[in-house]
Design a protein that fits this description.
7-stranded antiparallel sheet; Beta-galactosidase, Chain A, domain 5; 2 helices; 339 residues; mainly beta
């Protein structure tokens, strides 16, 4: 592996360390006060500059991510509140949404609250507030490479309703500034079930400032609300007073071997961030554009749906239905480089 500008074998590195965690590794902890009390965290340090926190209490989503101490993402004013505080009614999700690098929205609902087939649905579904089971955090040598892995599963179930299971694996390697995410969603019930999934990646200051350049793979962009300007979706701004959120749909994505990518370059920090995803099961790209004061965030959201809610998706004829026993796989990757 490469660390500190040199290539090392496993034994060369181990001969210089008492524990591998001196340079990289995994550390589990539990928060102890306020609404965050009881929330589990797993810190992942790659040793190459990238550090991030996985939250088993919150769907194995990813909280704060940093590169050499520079924050890469946006954190919500709510903090990483314990899921016991979650309100699933209407817009209650907004009271406990944590922000961080990744908030997962789903599994049977994503987007606006509403009613579908007689069921009341809150904003963005339940999985971001669902604690994981069978959580494993391990470092494992493979020759002279050391892999850091966090995995577990979440279930969204209801008597006389859908029974979906999400198995998640998050991988990084010592010496590399990359996160790989592999999810499998399975209908473990015995009736067809609606399935909506949106990966809500949140980028913020200082990666985003007035010098940042944002590159989308789309050849066509539509605003969710008619009349919204389309000339500034790829530009970033200083915090603006009284700014109203804007949502854009990106269409006709340029692909490389079935994958699409969004990149953010910050020339002032000499950093470049890149989010990639396999589009086979994530054909949609939603953008949440919110450079307002106090909520200064860009949401990049690969998805299998748009964000008008489940009834709208059903009406469009695009609602994904998982058959009993059917499973779908989702693959994404995030990386950071010094430009």
């Amino acid at each position: 592996m490469k660390l500190y500008g040199r290539n090392w074998t496993r034994r060369e590195l181990e001969s210089r360390l008492g524990r591998m965690e001196q340079v990289a590794g995994l550390r589990r902890s539990t928060l102890s006060e306020g609404p965050e009390a009881g929330v589990e965290q797993i810190q992942v340090r790659t040793g190459a500059g990238l550090t991030y926190t996985v939250l088993p209490s919150r769907g194995l989503d990813i909280g704060l991510a940093e590169f050499n101490g520079i924050p890469l993402c946006w954190l919500s004013p709510n903090g990483e509140a314990h899921p016991a505080y979650y309100d699933d009614q209407s817009l209650g999700w907004l009271r406990t949404a944590a922000g961080g690098l990744l908030m997962t929205c789903g599994l049977t609902q994503a987007g606006s609250p509403g009613s579908d087939s007689g069921e009341m649905l809150g904003l963005h579904g339940r999985v971001h507030h669902t604690p994981a089971r069978q959580v494993c955090a391990e470092s494992q040598w493979q020759g002279d490479e050391c892999r850091l892995t966090v995995r577990g599963e979440m279930q969204e179930t209801r008597i006389f309703g859908a029974c979906l299971r999400l198995r998640r694996e998050i991988r990084s390697w010592v010496g590399q500034n990359k996160i790989e995410l592999c999810d499998t969603v399975e209908n473990s019930g015995f009736e067809p079930a609606p399935h909506m999934l949106l990966y809500h990646f949140n980028f913020g200051f200082p990666l985003l400032d007035e010098t940042s350049q944002i590159h989308f793979p789309s050849r066509r962009v539509l605003a969710r609300e008619p009349g919204l300007p389309l000339d500034s979706f790829s530009a970033w701004h200083a915090p603006q007073a009284n700014f109203s959120e804007r949502v854009y749909y990106h269409e006709d994505l340029a692909l490389h071997e079935g994958w699409a990518a969004v990149s953010i370059q910050n020339p002032y920090l000499s950093l470049s961030a890149r989010l990639e995803w396999e589009t086979k099961n994530l054909p949609e790209l939603v953008q949440w554009h919110m450079p307002g004061e106090g909520i200064h965030v860009l949401g990049v959201e690969p998805a299998n749906c748009r964000v008008a809610g489940r009834a709208a998706e059903r009406e469009r004829g695009t609602l994904v239905m998982l058959q009993p026993g059917q499973a779908l796989e989702y693959r994404l990757a995030f990386s950071i480089d010094e430009a």
